[in-house]
Write a structure and sequence with these properties.
mainly alpha; rod-shaped; membrane
Amino acid sequence: MAVDLNEFKHPSWITAAGAITGYLLILIVLTVALFIVPWLVFLAL
């Protein structure tokens, strides 16, 4: 069964990949802001 990779070049796949990437970046930033930064401040005290 041959897979046609041209179907993944559709703009909807690019949009989906961009949305997932954006959500992951936001998740990383919020994790750092809400957990890592307070932990570092607590250690500095």
